[in-house]
Write the structure tokens for this entry.
Amino acid sequence: MQKGNLSIHAENLLPIIKKWLYSDKDIFIRELVANGCDAVSKYAAISGDSTDNMRVKVTVDKEKRTITFSDDGIGMTKDEIDRYINNVAFSGAQEFIDKLKATGAEAENIIGHFGLGFYSAFMVSDKVIINSLSYQEGAKSAMWVSDGGLEFEMGEGTRAQRGTDVILHVSEDAEEYLEESKVRQVMRQYLNFMPVSIYVGEDETPINDTKPLYLKAPGDITDDEYKEFYKKTFGTWEDPLFWVHLNIDFPFNMKGILYFPRIRQDYSINDGCVKLYCRQVFVAENIKEIIPDYLLLLKGVIDSPDIPLNVSRSFLQSDKQVKALSGHISRKAADKLTSLFKTDREQFEKVWDDISLFVKFGCMRDDKFYDRVKSCLIFKTNESTTLTIEEAKEKAKETQNSLYYVGMDNKDAPIADMYTAKGITLALLDSPIDANFISFLEMKETELKFKRVDSDVADAFKAEENDESTKEVLEKIMREAVEDDKLTVNVAKLEGIDVPAILTFDEQMRRFKENSRMWGNEFDMPIPATITLNIASSIIDKLISLPDEEKSEFAKHIYDLAELQQGSLPQSRMAEFIRRSYKFM
């Protein structure tokens, strides 16, 4: 078997770095500004000076077709440029951190890790120039020039003050970056919270906030400051409902703020926005490995230096730390909900409609989340009260362990009045997710069952001893009228409801149909119906007393009206129903 060594050609490697290292061209602005911030932070760490009086500046010259990234940081000598720029992927950041650790200095705000960010400049440039002067006493300015190939030129530079200029000569296919507005837009996306002041053009107001709110101690922040940060960060005029401040030092470092916004009933996960930062550098939004999908209904900012990013600082690598971060975020969100419920149930009930979708979705997605929040899950009722799960179990005992409820398409149905008249508590479940959620709850809490008011007729309404022959007569009339000899016909004395009949459908079959519709599937199989005739209604007496030749049409009209109470008639039967209505009039 032949053996040999892999042959790697540098001339093939650099185009790969330039073209495919980063998934988005905009990233070059983030990387070059981050390098400038690194340089400033390094100088501050060595000198002991504050970064408050230092800066990174970005200047666009449309006529010269250049973008210049300038900083007053540590600078580089000719030898350092040769070591860190000419040797691809030789990172100076880690070497620098190691040196600082040896002296006992702090270096936590050094952003760079890989030494590859500089090469993102060639994604948009025909030529790149470095003009730098090191902070070291007696150092000479150095210049480096390359057109993106393997050749470069090095010589004496022209910079007179400490720091570095990186000058990009923008290529024709990247002209959009010669618009200052485009550069500002990218910087606002990626560099909002960088730790060094960043300026664009001649503007003397920094584009970023070097001390974002999430880095402060929660006790030092007012409610108005939390709200203002929310509105500014997410471009909204609405106040959040409440928030949870993440401030963790062990077993990992993570800071941030998660806001609970008002969530529309026709929710979309894309409505939420959780921004992920690493050392105040924006990484991405809504990264599912860190943020559980149900938390993506929220808005927030999370910053952690412990996030295991890949070499381009754009994507997460699979890591146990990621799972730990994700689990802690979920736990903190759950703790906030249970804390609010315990300390101020009245306020919790007021915001329930706005957060219930998120909470229910989270419960179904994550068993651990459900276990943490189940004590504060509530159901609003027709009595203007709320029930927890345990309280619902007690209520259900009054109706054979079934909690009756009204859904989104029948909350105003006459049948609900009949339950209310009997003093039976009804849960109000009128969000799109509820059909799934109650099925989930029934698996978790086996002693609690849910029945919609139109799924059957409760025992409290069943007729006592009725004339069996009357029941047989009514069954025969209805089955012949609707041409269904398998139709289930019940007879009951329905108090508190002034209708001759109600139509009910099997609870589980109806739920399956609703769930299928919610997830975009069509469920064409007909659901068996049961019609319950109200012997307390004079209309049923009228039906029985009619001549035989008129019974069928009258019964069919009763059936159609009962079906209309459930929603609407099929188009094929609507014309006949209207014709019959005119006839009866």
In short: The two ends are 97 Å apart (CA to CA). Residues 320-343 form the longest helix (24 residues). The longest strand covers residues 125-133. The CA atoms of residues 337 and 373 lie 7 Å apart.
